[in-house]
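Hi R.,

As promised on Friday, here is the backbone we talked about, encoded as structure tokens. Could you run it through your design pipeline when you get a chance and send me back a sequence?
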């Protein structure tokens, strides 16, 4: 056998044969002139591939499109699998089955079997595109949704192997959703639709939350304020002023201008003719249908007698320079107002917009000033003195009709200095009975007289001791009558039961 191989190698490397005119004029493709017997079996044509090849020479193929031929051959071999490894790289533009040699066809179906079993490995690029074309044409799946999920998974996975296919992935995935009428939410995580979502937030500025507007501005602004020193030092302040400025300018345009501020920044929707699955081999099996499809409010598709059009906001689908100029102006004017160490300049922002931004900044800083003025500072070091003064006042008031103060004061001191009833309850007996009487409409005055402590003092004492649990007063004494604050009544009843 080794001698036969040596003879074949000698014949195939003969320079006289290679340089002969007969040899040069002939074109040999895909297969060598002479093959060892060991390879002849591997090159046998499987029955399914023969059927595919016969379609090329069928009467219909002469007047049908190449897209029809691809779809028909693909459906013919939809479930075919092979076991023939093909490891030679090659290039073909708009590849289809009829362009592949027998070896390449068998190699493709072997690779496709691996992909369908979840083993996505590198392959010649024509194999990759033929597989994508199959999915676009819904070859190899029972439902359109199943086919879409396979297509999306393949794009996501194979992009890590060869990112050259990424330039087509989003358009073809969106086209698939539109053409086959799938749920538009399937496109929500695609960049073009996410861009639309941010645009819609700014378009409906009067209906969106501050967080939604701030996120949309962040996505669409060419000036990326996340790197701004001022934003990094005062993010909440920057966010508040930026959102209020955008709302203020939008409201001004709504009231004073024919064109909205959104339209000034991004333009309006425009309808243009559209090629479904552009740059792919796609057989339109509904070529004369008419329909409408909306991805969202500003991104719609229309088909009239097979001709598609798309209506959306065209122009730059990236970050907006005009919006970026506005954001930079907000950053600059904030730095100016707060006398920030590092100043920046801005340009291409109207005097009206600058005036509105300045007003927003002034109003915001005035709000901060008022909040600071309302803050009450408590000097804790003086509390002990206040308590002593209150004790003296209480003792002077608790004098019986006969003026016998000594016994009364002694009894009062014993009551007020009693320890809490339990570790979990910070109140002493007089405070607890007073609180329970308020909770269950009891005689709080009788409790006050029993312990010879004024109701107002008992209420203050209860509020002080329970403050750590509720972070608030639980008894209201604003009208000289103690009342449990309604918000805390149920919780207190769980803690203190009627005795």
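Update: got your reply. Pasting your designed sequence below so it's all in one thread:
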């Amino acid at each position: 056998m080794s001698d036969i191989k040596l003879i074949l190698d000698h014949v195939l490397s003969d320079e006289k044969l290679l340089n002969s005119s007969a040899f040069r004029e002939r074109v040999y493709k895909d297969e060598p002139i002479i093959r060892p017997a060991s390879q002849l079996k591997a090159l046998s044509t499987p029955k399914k591939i023969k059927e595919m090849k016969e379609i090329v020479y069928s009467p219909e193929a002469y007047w049908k499109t190449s897209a029809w031929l691809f779809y028909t051959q693909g459906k013919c071999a939809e479930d075919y699998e092979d076991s023939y490894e093909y490891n030679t790289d090659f290039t073909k533009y708009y590849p289809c089955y009829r362009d592949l040699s027998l070896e390449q066809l068998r190699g493709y179906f072997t690779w496709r079997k691996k992909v369908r079993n979840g083993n996505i490995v590198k392959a010649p690029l024509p194999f990759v595109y033929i597989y994508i074309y199959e999915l676009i044409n819904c070859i190899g799946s029972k439902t359109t949704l199943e086919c879409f999920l396979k297509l999306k998974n393949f794009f996501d996975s194979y992009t890590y192997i060869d990112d050259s296919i990424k330039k087509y992935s989003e358009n073809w995935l969106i086209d698939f959703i539109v053409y086959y009428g799938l749920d538009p939410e399937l496109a929500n995580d695609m960049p073009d639709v996410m861009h639309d979502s941010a645009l819609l937030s700014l378009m409906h500025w009067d209906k969106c939350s501050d967080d939604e507007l701030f996120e949309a501005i962040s996505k669409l602004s060419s000036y990326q304020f996340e790197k701004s020193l001022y934003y990094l030092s005062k993010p909440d302040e920057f966010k508040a002023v930026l959102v209020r400025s955008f709302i203020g300018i939008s409201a001004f345009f709504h009231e004073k201008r024919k064109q909205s501020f959104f339209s000034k920044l991004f333009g309006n929707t425009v309808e243009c003719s559209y090629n479904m699955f552009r740059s792919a081999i796609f057989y339109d099996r509904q070529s004369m249908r008419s329909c409408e499809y909306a991805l969202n409010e500003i991104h719609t598709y229309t088909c009239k007698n097979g001709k598609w059009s798309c209506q959306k906001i065209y122009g730059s689908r990236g970050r907006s320079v005009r919006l970026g100029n506005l954001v930079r102006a907000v950053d600059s004017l904030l730095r100016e107002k707060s006398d920030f160490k590092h100043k920046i300049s801005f340009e291409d922002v109207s005097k009206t917009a600058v005036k509105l931004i300045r007003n927003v900044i002034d109003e915001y800083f005035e709000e901060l000033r008022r909040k600071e003025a309302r803050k009450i500072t408590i000097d804790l070091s003086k509390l002990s003195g206040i308590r002593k003064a209150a004790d003296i006042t209480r003792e002077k008031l608790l004098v019986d009709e006969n003026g016998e103060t000594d016994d009364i004061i002694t009894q009062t001191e014993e009551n007020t200095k009693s320890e809490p009833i339990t570790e979990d309850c910070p109140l002493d007996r007089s405070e607890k009975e007073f609180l329970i009487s308020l909770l269950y409409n009891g005689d709080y005055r009788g409790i006050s007289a029993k312990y010879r402590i004024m109701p107002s003092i008992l209420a203050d004492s209860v509020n002080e001791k329970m403050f750590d649990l509720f972070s608030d007063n639980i008894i209201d004494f604003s009208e000289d009558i103690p009342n449990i604050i309604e918000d805390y009544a149920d919780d207190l009843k769980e803690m203190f039961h009627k005795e």
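One thing I noticed while checking it: The first strand starts at residue 270 and ends at 274.

Thanks again,
M.
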